Amino acid sequence: MGRTMTAVKPPGLKQLRNEKALKVYAVVLCILIVVVAAARWLRVLCNRRLRSWPTRGGALYRAFLLAFRQLEKRPRWKWLCELPVGLLLLLGVLLVINATLSVTIIAGLRINYFASRFGWLAVANMVLCVLLGLRNTPLSSVALVSHATINTAHRIIGYSAAFLVAIHGILYTVYFVRQGTWERLFEHGNIQGFSAGAGMLVLLFGYMRHQNYELFYASHISGFVVTVFFTGIHRPDWAKKLPIVMVIVACMWAVERFLRAVKMAYHLVGTGLCQEAAVLYPLTDGGTRLLLRSRRAHSVPPGSHCYLWIPCVGLGQSHPFTVVSSGSWGMELVIKAHDGFTRRLSELATEKPGSISWASIDGPYGSLPDLQSHEKLVLIAGGSGAAYTFGLMNHLLASHAKTRPQSVDFVWAVKHSGQLSWFQQHLSQLKRVSEGMSVNATVYITSEEVAQERHVDLVGNLAEPGADELSGLLFGGECQQLAAEQTPGLYSCTYKYGAMSADDVLWDAMQTVASLERSLVVTCGPLTLMRAVRDAVESYREKHRQRIVNFYCEEFS
């Protein structure tokens, strides 16, 4: 008996135009990525070459840097979320492209054609959103873009995709009602489309990430899985490419998750076999010092961040923390207790000081600012944000770079003097500065009052649990050998009581900077502090337009 072969139905004009529109979108995205990467690398090149080309070439580099400075400004309008002009322009271009492709390359002026186009653009933005949301996204290293910037773009693109999905559903609803076939809304494929939309609504709960990170994390994962699955079977015809796109999205996400899980499991087993693990010590005011004895810690630069996994604290959870110091002995993390994982970690350290737990890390992640290309560094931190600035200093002191900053102003603001024990050893470690470099440390204690400020020659307060072990690690072995090879520079530390003024701190730091020298201001800590420092930098730039003052803000948003 012969078998009848059914010919594959060729795609219609609407499908072909939708595919063409998405190809145009993909090309434009590639061009934008190249432009952003070229601009970022050009900025790095100009900053590095500025002092080596003091004549005509230097003037050209300075002109480029001043132009890039305009892109770093932030409009004062709160409804723009205080995003820099450069990022606003980039997102504006993406929104214009989406709006243009929504009404062009259309097969016909019919409402269902427009509804279909909005759906396809939503799918394209979902792909881009997932690419930006990957921890190992290539955009971070290619374009030298910070974690905070990529995360901001990830959220805005996600909101755009949700908006396009809503328009897609509304237009198709209007179309079916006008045709008198509203019952088609309850067909099998359309119900799956509503399910995908419900999953996307769950994804919009991203604002909870600051209130309850664990709830946000669980809802985000579940919402993503629901959205991708039901979108893929919303139109299951493989010839229409939608299932193919969703399979690609799912594979990108799943492969990255699988590789990170395998790495974490491997390092967990490795630390267990070598009897190297996380040692926990409680600190005052809800802090926890974690010493992770790991053979691979020397490859993790201080100042970067890693995702920490401790099965006995959170079996299915990993959270990002900044590495304060690292070496062949392992790495150190200082963690402030909030809710959930960090609270349980603090309680375990308090109940069993010095307890040893199996742990694993995934990382490092994040790109460090270019410290060596500046003559002046101003590091400003608040509270536990000092983990980042102390990490940068440890990275700078341990590096063997030929060129280093000539002067460093290290500013740390805490509420209570008890918090000083969190980083007392590292504050003492700042005395181990290189020849030709001076460090001026200032500590603000904002919630206590003393009649006058005092200058302190720190010798280290090692009474805090875990400080003896940490001191031996920091000041012994390879660090002592490195210190012996260097001629100490200048170091001073001042304690001040009362509120810190970011404008005054920056103005005082810039008094010793020559007109052709490059300065870098780095801040990390509470949002109010980072905004105050950013505003102070922008105010200083307005008053000294020819000065090269770069700004870097580290935040986990």
TrEMBL record:
PANTHER family: FERRIC REDUCTASE TRANSMEMBRANE COMPONENT 3-RELATED, FERRIC/CUPRIC REDUCTASE TRANSMEMBRANE COMPONENT. Keywords: Cell membrane, Electron transport, Glycoprotein, Ion transport, Membrane, Oxidoreductase, Transmembrane, Transmembrane helix, Transport. It is a multi-pass membrane protein. This is ferric-chelate reductase (NADPH). CDD domains: NOX_Duox_like_FAD_NADP (cd06186). It holds the Pfam family Ferric_reduct. GO terms for biological process: copper ion import; intracellular iron ion homeostasis; iron ion transport. It comes from the Eukaryota. It catalyses: 2 a Fe(II)-siderophore + NADP(+) + H(+) = 2 a Fe(III)-siderophore + NADPH. One of its GO terms (molecular function) is ferric-chelate reductase (NADPH) activity. Its EC number is 1.16.1.9. It is found in: Cell membrane. Belongs to the ferric reductase (FRE) family. Residues 245-371 form the FAD-binding FR-type domain.
